[in-house]
Amino acid sequence: MALALERWLAPYINEGLPSATSATSATSVAPSSPAECEVAGVAIVARGAPQTTWSDAQEECAAIIEYDGGAPPAWAEGFARLNPNKPPADVPVKRWLRFIDDCARFLDAGWAGKAAALGWGPFHLFGCDRKRPFTRLDNMGLIWFLNGGRIIELHRDRVTIETRMGARQCYRLRPIEVGQVVLAWELAS
């Protein structure tokens, strides 16, 4: 999957920085500028005009995530629609890039198929508040809470996360506020 992600991110790749060979071994690093970060092991810089058409690389990325990672098709296609250059209105660029990296690692590691089988829906994973996606913690899905951490255990009603500092946290599945929560890739900034 790393090759498809690299091709999808090609317009954003920061020249001169090496790209990773495996998305599953990727770790996010602190950016050297507010608009630079690493997504699925590929150093990117948010720049230029946002892409408005579905590219072959995005289509390939979605297909690989769906078939290799076991993700439902809508989740794979939604991930491929996330634009590193266009964070939602109240989400800082660095945090948006971290969210995209967390999505890639979640999908690449096979957690998506397991989550779907256990009854986790897309709003429970990728959802956020329609008006204030970054500030309304009560409407954030699991992937927003990862923030560079990794999933240790996934159950029907909860997830154990290991943070970047090594602490363990429990995220519990909660009811969704219909009309308040949207999927990250549906946000317009």
Give a quick precis of the structure.
This protein has 189 residues and is of the alpha+beta class. It has seven helices and seven strands. It has one domain (2-186).
First-to-last CA distance: 28 Å
Strand count: 7
Oligomeric state of shown chains? single chain
Q: Cα-atom Rg, whole angstroms?
A: 15 Å
Specify the helix fraction band.
25-40%
Describe this structure in words.
With 189 residues, this protein is of the alpha+beta class. It has one domain. The protein is built from seven helices and seven strands; from the N terminus they run αββαααααβαββββ. It has helices at residues 2-8, 56-69, 73-81, 93-108, 111-117, 122-126, 142-146, and strands spanning 36-39, 42-45, 127-129, 150-154, 158-162, 168-172, 181-183. A hairpin with a 3-residue loop joins β4 (150-154) and β5 (158-162). α1 (2-8) packs antiparallel against α2 (56-69) and α2 (56-69) packs antiparallel against α3. It is globular.
Please outline the helices and strands.
Blueprint: H1 2-8, E1 36-39, E2 42-45, H2 56-69, H3 73-81, H4 93-108, H5 111-117, H6 122-126, E3 127-129, H7 142-146, E4 150-154, E5 158-162, E6 168-172, E7 181-183
Antiparallel strand pairs: 1-2, 3-7, 4-5, 5-6
Observed structural traits:
alpha+beta; 3-stranded antiparallel β-sheet; two-stranded antiparallel sheet; 7 helices; 7 strands; globular; disordered N terminus
